[in-house]
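Reopening this ticket.

The earlier resolution said the output was attached, but the attachment link was broken on my side. Pasting everything inline this time so it's all in one place.
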Amino acid sequence: MSSKKRVKRKQTYDHHFPDKAVLAFVIVMAIFGTIMIYDASVYMATQEFGNQFHFLIQQLAWLLFGGIAGLIAYFVDYKKLLKFSLPFLGIIIILLALVLVVGEEINFSKRWIQLGSLPSIQPAEFAKLAIVMYFSSWFAKNENKNFKKGDNKNEFTKALIPFLAVLGLVALLVLLEPDLGTTMVICITALIMFLLSGKNKEHRNRLLTLIPVIFLLGIAAIVVEPYRMSRIQTYFELIFKGEVADPRGSGYQMQQILIGIGSGGFFGKGFGQSRQRFGYLVENTAFTDSTFAVLLEEFGLAGGIIMVTAWILFLTRGLKISLSARDSEGKYLAAGITIWLTSQAFLNMAANVGLIPLTGIPLPFLTYGGSSTIVTMIAFGLLLNVSRYSKNA
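Inline output:
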């Protein structure tokens, strides 16, 4: 009888076809996102390089490279990959420190680093993946150590201090670039993962008491940088007065975004009909940070609703994969990836409609960029990897 049970358990966790809904989401979003990046980048590509396909070709190359990396992340058992999470995190921390010293400065920020003849990379993007992988392994190893019989407060502190030390170091290095948006995504993801690692209400309640402290640290990060304060002022002016402050200065980008969204109406102007992509949006943001605004102009509110709905469906599916994972590593890995990508997507879309101040957070699949595209594809490869070993085979 016991032998039969063991055989059944092995079959239950045997690998199978990956989650079809997430796989379909990846394929559709990759295709649609590439088309939107091309559409939004035509003007800039023609003006700067005399070739309307310049950014499309580069994006396709990154998508191909990211796809290969994603396939590796999919086919290699995630438990084996997580064994390298600590050295991977260590390398990323070194790169985050190096970028502050020898990084390429663009618009008063040092976020890119050149490694020999290779294309420049953005270590902060890889930091998101490194944090999720490291904490997935760490929480799984320490899952049985927290909240043993005895002093729960002491056990919580023992878990919290090393967690904050690692998260604090990575967040500080990213913030110094400066990149507040990526810092937010990393902290949100890690804190929710830590919340999920708790086994009782006491763990959750103690963690929630840290929210005011984190909020005050966020306020301090805004106050010390004048450009962030300017964005906050523009945001409050929009929320409370219904108009953009300094539309020719600090509020210019938000003003142009709202003009585009307003002209799009419910059904939009149609694909390829955006006017804001023709140099009205600041620099190259039409196909990077503000591609969602171009989408709203061309496909209207209806297109925006479809995009938001797609990410909500992904969120529910990703969490379902987490709940049905074969082990703790898979549970935390799937949850971390889902929270990271979804929070990043919602923060980008919220910023592009004026619900939060503008940030430089990329929208997965719809933002042009090598590091962002590659990391996104690896993350989805890992998520689909976890789904192959779920209990719902």
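Reporter confirms the inline version is readable. The first strand starts at residue 104 and ends at 106. Residues 1-12, 146-150 have pLDDT under 50 and may be disordered.
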